[in-house]
Amino acid sequence: MKKSYDYVLFDWDGNIAKTLDIWLEALHVVLARHGVKRTDHEYALSFGAWNRFAHEDWKIDLDAVMPELDAYARARLPDVELYPAALEVLKALHDRGKNIALISSSSHENISIPLLKHDLMQYFDTIISADEVTEHKPPPEPLEKALEALGGRDPSRAI
Questions:
Q1: Is residue 1 pLDDT above 80, yes or no?
Q2: Residue 47 in this model has a pLDDT that exceeds 90
Q3: CA nearest to 50, candidates 74, 70, 77
Q4: In the predicted structure, residue 51 carries a pLDDT above the cut 90
Q5: What is the 3-state secondary structure (H, E, C) of the chain?
C-alpha cells in the first residue's frame, strides 16, 4: 500500500536552493580573517552545529563573527540558483493541495531574497526560519513548529 502524506516539509539550504557553496565560501573567507582555516569537509560537518564548532574547534566567539558571515553570504544570495526540478516539484505539490512548509536555519531576511526572486512564496503555507525558533535543526523544534502552523497533529502524516 502506497503511503500518502498531507504535509510536506522542505529544508531550504541544500534542498531547494544551491546555497551550501555560498555558506562554505563565507566560512572560508570570514573565518580565515579570524585565524581559522579548515577544509570544505570540516566546515560541512559544522552545518547545523556552528555554536559547538565555534566554541570547541574554531575557538572564536560566533556571536561576534556571525554578522560578518551573514553579510558575506547575503551579498551572494540574490544570485542563488534553485536545484533542478525544485520549482516543478513545489508547483505539483501545491496543485495537489498539499500543505507545504519551508524550514531553514537561515534568517527570514536571507531566505526571502531568493524566495522573492524565484517567485516561490506562493507555494509555501508556512515558513519557519532561524528567527522563529530557539533551536535550529537538527533538534525538532523547527519541524514541530512548521507542522503545528500547518495544522498537522499527526507527525506520521508529514514527510
A1: no
A2: no
A3: 70
A4: no
A5: CCCCCCEEEEECECCCECCHHHHHHHHHHHHHHCCCCCCHHHHHHHCCCHHHHHHHHHCCCHHHHHHHHHHHHHHHHHHCCECCCHHHHHHHHHHCCCEEEEECCCCHHHHHHHHHHCCCHHHCCEEECHHHCCCCCCCCHHHHHHHHHCCCCCHHHEC
